[in-house]
DNA sequence: AGAGGGCTAAACATAA
DNA sequence: TTTATGTTTAGCCCTC
């Protein structure tokens, strides 16, 4: 067992009056760390006058940016994402990298995020391609995105593990025997509790821009500086990047508005689940999840504790049902997604909001099984039917754009775990396509 | 005032 | 043996 650097009861007693400071428990704990640790920590986290910013419940998050609420929104799965507008509207392009918390003016950079560990873990797992992460990767995700934890006491890792173990929202999945690398198990989100987590997530105050950022996702993308992402967004507002260049969080950032719109539309016609359905067995729900699919065909956790503690209220499950379905279900055909996506982008491309990656995209997925005639293809065909002389060229150009768009949208959707919630819209789009073709 | 959620610390066990 | 991981318990604070 490795030593855990943190506050001991003895050291607590050495901090007179600290416990009496209402709402500053987190700070006093930090401020009373061993001096060696304090010396390595930015002063901002230690100064009492600024300690209020470190408080988890401090609402100064909301005051630091006048347009905070417009800059942040929730992604397709309810995960908080940074809206592209965030980068565009600011006079100074906010740094999305670690430098943002080295700026002493941005106190919030060293502030605690307004998310509980459970939510942070949830976001980390959901942003992973496999919807499963080892503890170490969860650490990394949090460290990469929450500057606070870069300088926080190491006890937060203990808290992460504690949450993983105690919170039944998270399920341990044994690694496959074939996998040699790595210690421990993979952790996944129990789809049964995804709605609860998402609801809890949405209840949180929006973070300040410098507290939640999206760094380059992988070592191979190290050449992609945060400024690159900012500049790209600034130039094109929304633009699709290569999958290797951005992580799922960024992908969801780019896709946010259109997906949310789709989900919102999807929620309308869906009836509420019955109580019986809500009470369906855990094992069924867990096995049902395609989001839990693993590359290594990992076996499921062997022990499932049905205890009801450390859980979010079941009352929220119905409300988020559709969103949950979007992440735990799968489309029967990937093409269906592709056929749907252009419609979303088309709807959003009228100047208001949406997915604007039709042109000038860098997406280059090789293994994309795109079929023909998606919605966008049909839209292009419609324009070509207006008697243009360069009909063929235009059609070809449209098809290229369509393919790029569909590749980008489909891949991003795949990352975001968007699935069956779009089914109704897909079928609607299909029907419309068929009608238009008949015309 | 009490319940519940969340965080932190700590001890311990286990696996790599 | 060391380290990382996982489990459990306890105590505290905060919000409702």
UniProtKB/TrEMBL annotation:
It comes from Lipotes vexillifer. Keywords: DNA-binding, Nucleus, Transcription, Transcription regulation. Residues 345-398 are annotated as: Disordered. The keyword Nucleus applies. Gene3D superfamilies: Winged helix-like DNA-binding domain superfamily/Winged helix DNA-binding domain. One of its GO terms (molecular function) is DNA-binding transcription factor activity. InterPro entries: FH_FOXN2, Fork_head_dom, FOXN2/3-like, TF_fork_head_CS_1, TF_fork_head_CS_2, WH-like_DNA-bd_sf, WH_DNA-bd_sf. One of its GO terms (cellular component) is nucleus. It is found in: Nucleus. Residues 112-199 bind DNA. This is Forkhead box protein N2. It comes from the Eukaryota. Residues 359-370 have a biased composition (Acidic residues). Residues 112-199 form the Fork-head domain.
């Amino acid at each position: 067992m490795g030593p855990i650097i943190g506050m001991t009861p003895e050291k607590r007693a050495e901090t007179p009056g600290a416990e009496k400071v209402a709402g500053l428990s987190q700070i006093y704990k930090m401020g009373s760390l061993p001096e060696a640790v304090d010396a390595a920590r930015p002063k901002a986290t230690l100064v009492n006058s600024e300690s209020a910013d470190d408080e988890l419940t401090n609402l100064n998050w909301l005051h630091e940016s006048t347009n905070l609420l417009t800059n942040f929104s929730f992604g397709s799965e309810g995960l908080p994402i940074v809206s592209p507008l965030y980068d565009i509207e600011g006079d100074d392009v906010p740094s999305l990298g670690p430098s943002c918390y080295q700026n002493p003016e941005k106190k919030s950079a060293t502030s605690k995020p307004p998310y509980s560990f459970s939510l942070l873990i949830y976001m980390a797992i959901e942003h992973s391609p496999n919807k499963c992460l080892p503890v170490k990767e969860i650490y990394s995700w949090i460290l990469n995105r929450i500057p606070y934890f870069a300088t926080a006491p190491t006890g937060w890792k203990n808290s992460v593990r504690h949450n993983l173990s105690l919170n039944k929202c998270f399920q341990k999945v044994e690694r496959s025997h074939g996998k040699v690398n790595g210690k421990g198990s993979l952790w996944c989100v129990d789809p049964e509790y995804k709605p609860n987590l998402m609801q809890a997530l949405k209840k949180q105050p929006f973070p300040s821009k410098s507290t939640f950022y999206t760094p380059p996702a992988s070592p191979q993308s190290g050449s992609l500086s945060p400024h690159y992402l900012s500049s790209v967004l600034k130039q094109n507002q929304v633009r699709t990047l290569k999958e290797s260049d951005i992580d799922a969080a960024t992908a969801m950032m780019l896709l946010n508005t259109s997906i949310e719109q789709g989900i919102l539309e999807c929620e309308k016609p869906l009836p509420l689940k019955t109580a019986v359905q809500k009470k369906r067995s855990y094992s069924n729900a867990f096995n049902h999840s395609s989001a839990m699919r693993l590359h290594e065909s990992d076996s499921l956790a062997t022990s499932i504790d049905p205890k009801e503690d450390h859980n979010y209220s079941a009352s929220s499950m119905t409300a988020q049902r559709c969103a949950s379905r979007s992440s735990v279900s799968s489309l029967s055909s990937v093409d269906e997604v592709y056929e749907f996506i252009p419609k979303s982008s088309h709807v959003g491309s009228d100047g208001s909001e949406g997915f604007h990656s039709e042109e000038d995209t860098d997406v280059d997925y090789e293994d994309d099984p795109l079929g023909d005639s998606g919605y966008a293809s049909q839209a292009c065909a419609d324009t070509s039917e207006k008697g243009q002389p360069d009909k063929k060229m235009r059609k070809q150009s449209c098809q290229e754009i369509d393919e790029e768009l569909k590749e980008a949208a489909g891949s991003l959707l795949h990352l975001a775990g968007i699935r069956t919630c779009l089914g109704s819209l897909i079928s609607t789009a299909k029907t419309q396509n068929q009608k238009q073709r008949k015309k």
